[in-house]
Design brief:
Elements: E1 2-3, H1 11-17, E2 25-28, E3 34-36, E4 40-41, H2 48-58, E5 62-64, H3 72-83, E6 91-96, H4 101-115, E7 122-125, H5 140-158, E8 171-172, H6 178-183, H7 195-204, H8 208-218, E9 222-223, H9 230-235, H10 246-253, H11 269-272
Parallel strand pairs: 1-2, 4-5, 5-6, 6-7, 8-9
Antiparallel strand pairs: 2-3
Helix pairs in contact: 2-3, 3-4, 7-8
Bound molecules: NADP nicotinamide-adenine-dinucleotide phosphate.
NADP nicotinamide-adenine-dinucleotide phosphate binds near residues 42 and 236.
Pfam families: Aldo_ket_red
InterPro entries: AKR, NAD(P)_OxRdtase_dom_sf, NADP_OxRdtase_dom
Protein name: Aldo keto reductase
């Protein structure tokens, strides 16, 4: 695996670093270990075991799963143990809900058993907001905690504690328009149909998906696009033989200012409340 140069933040700086990256590049984590910058989102698939088997063949080594994703963990356990890929070459991510100390430990043990492994490479809180009871509708406290967390993150960034300089990887999910495809509620959420993305897709002869993922890579993000279709799995790794121009990257970034575009409802907390 090729360690990733941590980009310094601007699109131009990332573009300059881009030729050194490829689909197998990794981010060197501060506490040790290498995290692949391109992984597979292992959400709910119709045939998860086939999707994971295909992804491992295509070359994915990071797979993001969670107890909440139905059969995903067990299917991944079966897929990797029959794939011939050694555990040491895999980077397995799973999650625990905000369920309290004892339940979190139980959840982790259950994940390990389903994944047929003795350790995880990354364990995330799913999600890092207050969720006292699984499936409970978002409460005011939930929203308040999310707002407080968001403000803490903004303050941390203003105070110079953000992740890039400290060797902490930022990983983006949903960058392939998943929320839009999942909910199809609001055409305004169809980010991949927006002019800056379709124009760049035409200019580079790439799909809107590839433009979106490439933009994220150029922002210094690690990505976990979800794809069950093998052609998509392959396409989502072909991101390193072209670069967005500075104006293309800026135009895509400016989509943020057009309103509440988040696919997952992580909107401006002030507005959300
Ligand atoms: N930590 C968290 O709280 C959290 C929350 C949400 C998601 N996630 C993670 O992030 C992952 C990705 O999020 P997401 O579910 O929103 O998915 P996404 O990556 O935004 O989009 C997935 C959808 O895009 C399609 N697709 C993939 N590649 C494509 C391509 N090249 N061209 C056209 N369509 C393509 C997929 O179709 P096919 O399946 O047919 O290929 C699927 O319908 C999840 O699986 C999960 O692992 C984490």
């Amino acid at each position: 695996m090729v360690p990733m140069d941590v980009p310094s933040g601007t699109a131009a700086a990332c573009n300059a670093a881009a030729p050194t990256l490829n689909a197998s590049s990794t981010f060197s984590l501060r506490e040790g270990g290498e995290m692949p910058i391109v992984g597979l989102g292992g959400g709910i698939f119709q045939d998860a075991e086939s999707a994971f088997a295909s992804a491992l063949e295509v070359g994915y080594r990071l797979i993001d799963t969670a107890p909440k994703y139905g059969e995903s963990e067990a299917a991944l356990g079966r897929a990797w143990t029959t794939s011939g890929v050694p555990r040491s070459e895999l980077f397995l991510t799973s999650k625990v809900g905000n369920v309290g100390y004892a339940a979190a430990l139980q959840s982790l043990e259950a994940s390990l058993a389903k994944l047929q492994t003795t350790y995880l490479d990354l364990l995330l809180m799913h999600s890092a907001v207050h969720q006292p009871v699984a499936k409970q509708p978002r409460s005011k406290l939930h929203a308040e905690n999310r707002l407080a967390t968001w403000k803490a993150l903004l303050e941390a960034r203003a105070a110079g504690k953000y992740a890039r300089e400290k060797g902490i990887a930022l990983q983006a999910y949903g960058g392939g328009g998943g929320g839009w495809q999942l909910w199809k509620k609001d055409p305004n959420l169809d980010l991949l149909g927006r002019a800056p993305i379709t124009a760049a897709a035409k200019a580079h002869a790439r799909s809107p998906h590839q433009i979106s993922l490439r933009w994220q890579i150029e922002q210094g993000l690690c990505i976990i696009p979800k794809a069950a279709t093998r052609a998509h799995q392959i396409e989502n790794r072909i991101l390193f033989d072209f670069a967005l121009s500075e104006s293309e990257a800026e135009a895509i970034g400016a989509l943020r200012s057009e309103g509440p575009l988040s696919l997952y409802g992580f909107r401006d907390p002030d507005e959300y409340l």
